[in-house]
Amino acid sequence: MIDTVIFELSGHPVLLIDLISSLLGLTCVVLAGRNSKYNFWVGYLYTAALFFLFWNRNLYASLLLQPVSLAINVLGHYRWTHPKPEDQSAQDSRKLKVSRLSPVWAVICVAATLAVAGLWGWTLNTLFPSDPHPYLDCLVTALILLAQLLSSLKKWECWIVWLVVNITQILLHLSVGNVFMPIVCGLYLINGIWSLWTWMKLYKKHA
Question: Nearest to residue 67, comparing CAs of 146, 154, 145, 150?
Answer without folding.
Answer: 145
